[in-house]
Amino acid sequence: MMGVGVVKQDVKAMILTGFASLVAGACSMAIGEFVSFYSQLDIEVAQVKRDKKRVGSGGENKEEKEEGRASLVKAAAASAIAFTMGAMVPLLGASFIKNYKVRVGVVVGVVSMALVVFAWLGVVLGKAPPARSITRVLIGGSLAMAITFGLTKLVGSRGL
Question: Fewest CB atoms less than 10 Å from the CB: which of 32, 62, 68, 144?
Answer without folding.
Answer: 62
